[in-house]
Amino acid sequence: AKNSGRGVFRFFTTDYLKAATERRELEEDLHLAIERDEFQLYYQPVVDARTDTVVGAEALIRWIHPVKGFVSPAQFIPLAEESNLICRLGEFALRRGCSDAMQWPKSLRVAINVSPVQFAEEDFVKIVQRVLRETRLPPERLELEITESVFVSDDEKVQQIFQGLKNLGVRLALDDFGTGYSSLGYLRRSPFDKLKIDQSFIRGATEFASRNRPIVEATATMAQALSMVTTAEGVETFDQLDLVRAQRVNYVQGYIYSKPISAEEFLSRASDNWQI
Ligand code: C2E
Ligand code: CA
Ligand code: CA
Ligand code: CA
């Protein structure tokens, strides 16, 4: 029994060390990955809930590791955020997304995820301005998706950046709404054009007596009253689609329409009035 106790402990430590080593390796690889051009942008169509028309796409980054293969952004984005590599990665996504969108029909927008860490960066607004100038993408075709966690830092500075971005003419979306430090006060002060209702609220919303349903409804109503539009994320079933339509959510993203697809595939399928 004594031995087994130590065995369990040793097992735990080696496991722990292994995880830490893997993490360090992944972090080293991440630094090389930008130079080696191992990142790709995939695009998930954003669909008008009333007309089934594609109005744009969200860019979702993919890392194709030479040995490990596909690595999920949920795994490497947090790593990149720790090492500040996220700023280079974020600028890559911004530039690539804008230049890809230049190939699409002019009616389609591109949405790019922005990490809160990029907000702390010197002159984030200037970076966006430069990318728009270089790619010639009209600013109104660019939407930046920002999570509530930006608000944990200096509020005045964040508000200034928002205003700078609005002055450029880009659109702002509040991502994963309802999951973070969401404060209605922030919402009142910040010039968001769109609220993205997190998929955790959509999931289960159609079940009997679900508490998610009134939350979806209240979010849609509030957004409307504040002159914002809404997107439902992670819609997978027809029941969920019916529900968000009934709540007058404006846009839908989810596997029911399409998973994220490669830039090539998106380009070849994109056309004016693309019904999906
Ligand atoms: P997110 O911004 O909330 O993106 C939505 C995630 O939900 C994506 O996961 C997407 O593939 C997935 N999804 C879409 N529709 C459905 C559905 O119907 N069902 C389910 N189960 N999932 C669905 P993905 O691509 O793995 O990205 C995960 C997260 O990584 C993103 O969450 C975002 O926070 C982050 N991320 C991805 N690309 C970037 C980027 O370029 N920059 C930054 N800063 N973060 C990124
Ligand atoms: Ca997003
Ligand atoms: Ca989201
Ligand atoms: Ca998310």
UniProtKB/TrEMBL annotation:
TM region positions: none
Coiled-coil region: none
Domain EAL span(s) in chain numbering: 23-274
Name the record gives this protein: EAL domain-containing protein
Source organism per UniProt: Novosphingobium aerophilum
